Every structure is written in C-alpha cells, then in structure tokens.
Amino acid sequence: MTTHAQTAIKSVSLSTGVTLPYVVQGDPNGVPVVLLHGMSDSLRSWEPVLPYLPPSIHAIAPTLRGHGDANHPATGDDFDHFAADVYSFLDALGLASAVIVGYSLGSDIAQRFAMDHPERTSGLVLVGTVTTWRGNAAVRELWDIAIAKMTDPIDADFVREFQATPGMSPAFHDIVVHESLKVPARVWQAGFQSVMTSDFSAELGKIQAPTLIVWGDADPICPRREQEALMTAITRARLVVYAGAEHNIQWERTERLAADVVEFTQSLAS
Fold first, then answer.
1. Which residues have a Cβ under 8 Å from the Cβ of 177 and sit 6 or more positions away?
2. DSSP class of residue 199?
C-alpha cells in the first residue's frame, strides 16, 4: 500500500502531567486496541496498519511522551513512566481495559503495563520484542557508535539510516524521519538507557493476558532464543514467525500484521 490514511489527530491531557496526541478509528463500542510505537517514532508509525483494521476494532494510537508532538518533559523517559501514561490514557478515554499492541520500545512498555495492571490488559501483542536487552550486542553497538554521542539537532543522515526498512516507500520514509527528528537527543539517550538496563525476565510470569508474540526471523536485534524465553515465561503466549522479516514488521509486513492482530483480537471473544 503506497498511501496512508490521514485520520484527525486529537490530544488528551493525562493525570501524569503530559499531553499526548492520538488518532482513533473504528466503532467506539468495538474492542479497544491501543497501539504503542517504537523508539523515536510517533502515532504516524501506525498509518500503514490502520487502513487494514476493520471498524469492529476501536483502534487508538498515541504518541508517547518525549516523542513527536507530545510533551517533552525533562525526565520520565523510562518504562515506569511510559506505563503510567498508558494507564492514565485509558482512564482519560474511559476504557476499562484494552488489547495493548507494542512494537520494539512499545513492546517493552506493553510488557511493563501488563505486569503492573493485568486487570486493564485484555490481550497483549508484542512485536519485535525480548525479555531483556541487557547484553544485546547490536543495541550496545548502536549506543556506542551513535546514541551516546548524539547532540541536538539530530543528524538527519543517521535517522534516515536508522529508519531504513525494506519495502518502505520513499514518501513514508520521509514521514518517519521527520517524526524522529522531533525527538531531542536526551530522549533518545534516556530511552536507550532504559532499554539497555531493562530485564523483565524474572517478572514475565505476572502477565496473565493472552499474548501474541510476533517475530521476524531475520530481525538483527531480537534473537530466536529471546522468543523462546518469552514463550516459556508467559503462560498464555503464542508465537508467530514471519519468515525473512526484520525488525520493523509493521512496515515490512503491514497487511499480515494487521490480519494477525484482528484474528487475535477476535479470538479473545470466542
């Protein structure tokens, strides 16, 4: 798909002190599905996926604190604050619970939220995820080479390479890069520090919700052993493998990911 739906952007002020932009589509009485983006992305990262979700899914995609056009507070770019924002976001929208879909950084936030608030998590979809990033050589190399040295304004050439994805249209790549350039260097660094020091492996047993793990077997930063560890740790988990896909599955295999999210969401009602 070469064009991406433009949905009116709303905003909501949260009890955590931040204001988050978000887009929403589908039947307000449908199954709520909250889509959490990755590091340096924004709500626009879900534009390719949204057209493939049926009206029966009440899809909601916020921009996380520190990213895009959300507030950029001086502190709080860590999983506890991100998860607290999601909790407050559900409250602000009057949602008792939701299926939480998280990609990369968003998958870590989704894990943290599901562990802390099982009563608010009706289902979990983890895309490009691990139990821990500690000791991940690819992430550490990226930190050492680029992120640790990052200053404002962010180097656009670095971001273009960072966001390069097989099959992505040049027009959408420009959108993604534009959104990433809104993120201050300190947020990139704080986000990566949270990632590199996180280890949820001992807590994943707290996740009670049915969980779909989506993994591309050519992902250079999320190894197979981590997917197996997730399957062992999360009681109600199921793994789907996308042959040949890398890390940015929502852009590489858009239609299939949307179909898997729909099938998983519908299965929760059966």
1. 156, 159, 160, 163
2. B
Q: Are 112 and 83 in contact (CB under 8 A)?
A: yes
Q: Give 201-241 pLDDT, tens digit per residue.
A: 999 999 999 999 999 999 999 999 999 999 999 999 999 99
Mean pLDDT per 10-residue interval, the chain, length 270 residues: 59 98 97 98 98 97 98 94 98 98 98 98 99 94 97 98 96 98 98 94 97 98 97 98 98 98 94
CATH code of the domain in which 233 resides = 3.40.50.1820
pLDDT, position 5: 47
Look at residue 190 and give its three-state secondary structure: helix
pLDDT recorded at residue 8 = 86
| CA distance linking residue 34 with residue 187, whole number of Å | 22
Give the DSSP H or E segment for 67: none
Tokens standing for 137?
A: 């050589």
DSSP sequence for 232-254: HHSTTEEEEEETT--S-HHHHSH
Q: Would you say the C-alpha torsion 157, 162, 167, 168 has a positive or negative sign?
A: negative
Q: Which two tokens stand for residue 185?
A: 């260097």
Q: What is the pTM of this model?
A: 0.96
Does residue 23 form part of some domain? yes
Q: Across the beta sheet with 10-13, what order do the strands follow?
A: 10-13, 19-25, 57-62, 31-36, 98-103, 121-127, 211-216, 237-242
Q: Is residue 62 domain-resident?
A: yes
146, amino acid identity: A
For residue 175, give its domain range.
10-267
Domain count along the chain? 1
